[in-house]
Amino acid sequence: MPSSSAPPHADPAVRPAPGRAPLGGRATRVALVGTGYIAETHLEALREVPEVVVVALCDVALERARAAARRHGIGVAVAQLQELVPHAIDVVHLCVPPDLHAELARAALELGFSLLVEKPLALEGETAAELFALARARGLVLGANHNSTFHPAFRALVARLGAIGRIEHADVRLAVPLRQLDARDFSHWMFREPRNIVLEQGVHPFAQLVRLLGRPLEVEPTVLATRELGPGQPFHERWSIGARCERGTATLHFHFGATFQQSTLAVRGSDGVLEADLHRDGLVEETKSPWLDAFDAYLAGARRARALGRAARRNLLQYLRQTLRLAPRGDAFYAGMRASIRAFHAAYRAGAEPPGAADEVAGVLAWCAATTRRLPATPRPAALPLDQRPARTGEVLVTGATGFIGRATLRALLARGLSVTALVRRPPALPEDLARAARAGELRLVRAELAGGETLRSALRGARVVLHLATGGGATWEELERAMLGGSRALYEAARAERVERFVYVSSTAALYLGPDCGRAVVDDGDGPDPRPAARALYARGKILTERALTELARSGAPALTIVRPGVVLGAEAPFQHSGLGLWVRDNHCVGWGRGERPLPLVLVEDVADALARVATHAGRELDGRALNLAARAPLGARALVEHVARHTGRALRFHPRPLALSQAMEIGKWLVKKAGGRRDPFPSWRDLKSRSLWPELACRTAREVLGWKPCEDPAQLLARLFPGARP
C-alpha cells in the first residue's frame, strides 16, 4: 500500500522484500491448500502465470483434493500441510475459509513456505501484524489476494485520477446476492457471527479505498436492516457507512443478499468525477468544459452514453470471443484475479514486496474493525455432539439430513418419538430446533463418508431403516457416477453387512420419462424409470442408473428396498426458483417448459417428510421392492404459481411461456457456438427437455392406499402454507 503521502496510483510491488534474494532461473513451485470454489479460479489463473508450476494440492477432504488433482493434471494430493514439505514447495496459495487463515498461515510460514492468502488475510489486525513479522524473520514473502484492486474498471479509474484534480470523496454502492443465503446454508462462515459478512464481502471495497484514500481515521457505521437467520443468529443485511480517511472522505452502502446486483465506485475530485461500474466493467468520466452550461450538460450526457456503449460492446465482444475460444477468459472478476496472482508471483521472483503486503492489509483490517466495532458480541453456540457409538436399537438413519427435505424428515421422525441418526460429512448445518434435539440426545449425529469403510458400518450398526436422501453430484458424468451411484451402492452394501431391514432410496421424478409423448395420461408407481438413461441429462441419468443398481443389489437379499420419487417439492425454507417450474434465466425470470398451464406434480416438503416417516415405520412387506411417487393433486400450473409468488412477495417476477421445440432450437444454437469454440459439451437432450414438461399425472396410489398418505391438495391451503397469510 502506498504511504499517506504517496500518490494513490503508486505501484505497490516495487519495494524490496528484506532478507530475500530474487529466485533463480527455475520455475516457482506452488501448492494450493484448500480445493473449493476459489481454488479453481487460482488454478486457472496460475496456468497463465509465467515460470510457475503447480505441483501439489492439499485439503483435509483428501478425496476432493484427489479429484481436483485429476481434473487439473497435478501429480500430488495430500491431506495435511506438513505433507507438502518433501515436494520442495516455494509458495502456498491459501484458499481455505477465513477463520482458518491465521492458523494455517502461521503453520505454513513455520514450514518455510511463502504465502498468498485469500482475503481477508486474518480476522484481526494484530494477528496479521504477527504473521508479517514472522514472514520477515524467516525471509519469506506474505501477501493478501486483494483482487478487487486489480479489477479492470478500478485500474482504469486509477489511471484517470489526474483528470479530476485533487481527490475529495469516494462513494461505494455494493449490493450482492448470496447463494448460501438463498439456500439457507446458515452454517457458512459468513453467517456465524454478525461481523463475518463484512470480513467476507466488505474487504473488496475497503482494499480499493485504502489504495485511493489511505487508512480510515473516523468511521461511522449504521446498520439499516437486520433479519434473524435463527435464534441468536442475527444477519445485518443493509449498512450505511460514513468515514474520514487520510486523503479524503467516503460513504458506503452495503446490501448483502440483494436480489439485484450492483457494484459501483464513484470518486469525486476538485475538477470532476470518475464512476466505475465494477459489476458491468465500465468507467464514466465527467469533467469541466469551457462551454455554456446547456451545451456542457449535453456534452456530459453524450460522453456518458459513448462510454457506456463502448463498455457494453467491449464486454459483449469479449464474451463472444471467449465462447468461440478466439480469446482466453477475460471477464472482469477473472481478469482481476489473474492480474493479482500474476503481480504477486512477479514480485516474489524479483525479490520485491508484493501487493497486499503489511501496510495494505493493516488498512483493510482497520476498515473492518471500525465498521463492526459497535456490533454486540454474539455467543457462539456450543459445538454439536458427534456420537461415534453404534446406533440404538431400531434406529432410523438419515443421509442428506442437513438438506431441504432432510431437515423436514428429521422433524417428522422425531415427532413420532423415533430414535434417529443423521449421517453427516462435515459439522452439521442444522437449524436451532434440530440442534437442540442433538444436544438433548434425541438426535444422534455421526460423521461418515458414503465411500464405505468401518466408520460407515459403525454408524449403521443397530439401525433398522436407512433413509438415503444424500444426492451426490459432479460437473462430469464420471464425478456424478462416483458420488451418486458409487456412494449409494457402498451405503446399501454396508447396510446389508449390518443387517438393516429396510433401505429407502429417495430418488426423483427426474428418473421417470414424463414427456408429452410418453404414451400415458397417468404414470403409476409401477412404471419404472426411463429405459433410455443415456438420452437424459446427467442428474436424471444418475438417478435412473442408481435406481437400477440398487434394484439389482436388492434381488440378492436384505435389506428390502423401497424407492421414493418426490415431485416438485416446495416449502417455506427453500427458494421458490424450482427447476420444475421452468428455466430460471434470472432469479425473477422463468422460461417455461411449455405454456406453463398444465397442473404440476407439486408437493409440500412437510408432506414428503410425512410419507418418508410412514415408510420408515411401516411394518408390512407391501413396500418391498416397490417405488412410490409423491405428488399432490393441486391444480396449479407454473404460470399461476409464479404469478402468485409475485403478488405475495412484491417481486417483479415474470413467467415466459415457450414451446419446447423453440427451447431445443435455442439449446442447439448455444451448443453449436460452444462447439465452434472447441468445447466438448454433450448434444442437448431433446428427450430430457420433453421430460421436464412433466406432462402426465402422477397417480401415487401406493403412498395413498398402503400408507394412508394425505398430502395438502387444496390450492389455497397449499399457497397459505408456503406463504402464511397469502391468497391464491
Major β-sheet annotation? 7 strands, mixed
The low-pLDDT segments are 1-22
Overall helicity: 25-40%
Shape: globular
Cα radius of gyration in angstroms: 28 Å
The SS-based structural class is: alpha/beta
Number of helices: 22
Mean pLDDT: 90
N- to C-terminal separation? 57 Å
Strand portion:
15-25%
Q: How many beta-strand elements?
A: 27
Strand order of the largest sheet: 8-9-10-7-11-12-13
Can you summarize this structure?
The protein has 728 residues and is of the alpha/beta class.
Would you write up a description of this structure?
- By secondary structure, the protein is of the alpha/beta class.
- It has 22 helices and 27 strands.
- Strands 8-9-10-7-11-12-13 form a 7-stranded mixed β-sheet. It has a 7-stranded parallel β-sheet with strand order 16-15-14-17-18-20-25, sandwiched between helices. It has a 6-stranded parallel β-sheet with strand order 3-2-1-4-5-6, sandwiched between helices.
- The longest helix is centred in the middle third of the chain and has 31 residues, at 293-323.
- The radius of gyration is 28 Å and the shape is globular.
